[in-house]
Amino acid sequence: MKQKYLVIFTQFCNKFQKSEAGASGVIILGGDMKLNASIILLLSSLIGLSSCGFPTNQLTPEERKADMGWAFTILEHNYAPAELKKSNFGVELSQVKADCMTMSATEMSNEKFLALFQKCIHSFKDAHLGAQQLNNGLLPENANVAHLGFVTMRTKVSVDGKMVNALRVVGQLKGSDVPWAPVLPGDLILEADGQPVDQVMMTEIVPYINVGQDETSLSMAAFKFAVRTSIDMALPDADEITLKVMRESDVSEITVPWIKEDLLAFQTKQAPPEEEGAAAAEEPTSSVEKVFASNPLAQTFFGYDSLKEVFSALQSPIDYAVNRIEMIAKTGFRAARFNPLMNALFKGELDAGGEFALKVNSRLLPMAGSVDDLMDEPLIPAKIVTTDDGKTYAYIQIAQFPSEDAFLTEWFRAITAIEDKGVKSVIIDMIDNGGGSLIHGMRMVNMVRKDTKIKVPSMQVKLNNNWMNSFKTQAAFGADDYSKAIAGRVVKQLEADKAAGKSLSRPLPATVLDPFFLQDGSYGMSGDVKIALLVNEFCVSMCDIFASVFQENNMGTVIGQRTMGGGGNVTQHGVSPISKMGMAVTESLMLSPNGKYLEDAGVEPELYIDMVADREKGFSEAFNKAYLLVTDQLNVAPSN
Predict the structure, then answer these.
(1) pLDDT tens for each residue of 415-441
(2) 259 Rama class: left (phi>0) / alpha (psi -120 to 50) / beta
(3) Rounded CA gap, 539 and 156, in Å?
(4) Which of 54, 171, 178, 198 has the fewest C-beta atoms under 10 angstroms from its C-beta?
(5) For residue 238, how far is the Cα from the chain centroid?
């Protein structure tokens, strides 16, 4: 959302005056402020659900317990992975509830309670599970930020012959972007207050964001190390931090103050100009082409500009009620957290010059003599690369799985172009993909190989009202008699499982959410096309599912690092009675085509690359190995 809409919301919430809407649908907010009907709908939705933000009064112990009790009541009735988390991590829902209710009763500030709320929710180490106070930061004195004047990303460096985690300083924040700053872009941070940075992140940040996979949790924590907000974690109590910094070959200790500001004031200062000149294109080298890919991580952390999407169900409640199964399948298989600062960071709007986003999103395509668009006017990054020795390969990025049919059409165009041009080597880039639509993702993976009936994943759903009523609604109001009959059969299975005392259903094929569309194998690439699929620790949800289907149907070779392991759908619940928190809850568990839980396990690639260390090199090692594999210069044994 543009900065002017932050101001609009503040005025709307603080100074709303009764007035009448004229024929033009414009409401007067005092002064010269005018809003059209669509903005009014969005803002009034925010206000209705969040009552203009977190309470300004100090919460009482009873109020804190009411909010915490609300959260655990939702988990008790709807959280599908509860038993799996107990088995994998020893986390028992009843014990976490007892501990968190006890802590809620102790004296603490509202900000500390928000941090406790996040910590309790993330005790389950779940990529989908999360809590958010959606309008935190929209009002003054509503949320705070503590930062060090720069932004960081995780990398690995050799110290005394051993690879260790480090933080690369990638950019400076506006207001701190001076050449005499104590820490400069390019510096490496090895320690903080005498402890290795990975230990500091595991202690201070990961408990508030834990996704169940240490590699992912650490990479995510690295982005937040130097820019922390009270939206999702406790802010540092200290006034300064001592960093062990490596600049080229010199290592020194530098003490840096924590700069603590109101979040709204900070965002106002950091906001980019309304119009910015386009970045100058970089000249390619003779053997490597740098491509700035689409930005998946900006979708993983959504900001104010996505709030309209969050509240879209309010604009068409009847459509949502009638098409519940379709809505779950199209919107529920992604991992996303509300954090407007992280969203701005990945868009290149937070650090001076936008260097961070360029660094995170660059890809180095190997052996590139020339790089051209794979098809006319592509909507997704899709390239055909010709090497200096005359070989060709295609590069396609799947940054997410949006629910728009236009994306499916674009994928079909790319697959068709590969076949028409006779390209026999393909690299598919799903690095940082945060998931999206199960329907569109499954249809896409079904189009990877021609003349192949794929083995599909299955799912166990929580036997709660949401899933039961969703299938009952489909059985009653489905688009055709076929889908009604399939949903009716599922309802009987769910009722039988519930009567047997189960908390999860029997495994249901994913086709129950999208019948018939996975039966046509006439589209796709022929069997002699070599395909490499690149994944990393941020590949989650539908990305986990796509990778598992690709791998277990022997469509090609998965290269990179173990995926995050967020295997299920997420449903939004809201709002808590006092603090107006919303919760995203995992309500199903996905199983790979071979019957393995994806939750907490993810997909192990056939060819491992340390993608954390490879990121700041544009993932050049991963792309080089993929190139060698798809051009028959490297052999990798299949995983199954």
Answers:
(1) 999 999 999 999 999 999 999 899 999
(2) beta
(3) 20
(4) 178
(5) 30
Place of tokens 């076949």: 419
Q: What is the pLDDT of residue 13?
A: 45
Residue range 211-231, pLDDT digits in tens: 999 999 999 999 999 999 988
* Distant-in-sequence, close-in-space partners of 620: CB < 8 Å, separation ≥ 6: 288, 364, 366, 614
Contact 561, 613 (CB under 8 A): no
**Cis link prior to 157 (omega < 30° from 0)?**
no
pLDDT tens for 1-41 read 444 444 444 444 444 333 333 333 333 333 344 444 444 44
Distance CA 73, CA 193 (A): 40
Q: CA 143, CA 121: separation in Å to the nearest integer?
A: 20
For 322, the token pair is 């009638």
Residue among 224, 223, 254 nearest 241 (CA): 254
CA distance 207 to 210: 6
Task: Give the three-state DSSP class for 635.
Answer: coil
Residue with tokens 């899709």: 382
User: Are the beta carbons of 165 and 156 closer than 8 angstroms?
Assistant: yes
Q: 263 and 248 in contact (C-beta within 8 Å)?
A: no
pLDDT at residue 392, as a whole number: 92
Give the other-Cβ count within 10 Å of 266's Cβ.
25
Residue 304: name the closest of 276, 342, 353, 361 by CA: 342
Give the CA-trace dihedral at 368, 374, 379, 380, to 10 degrees: -50
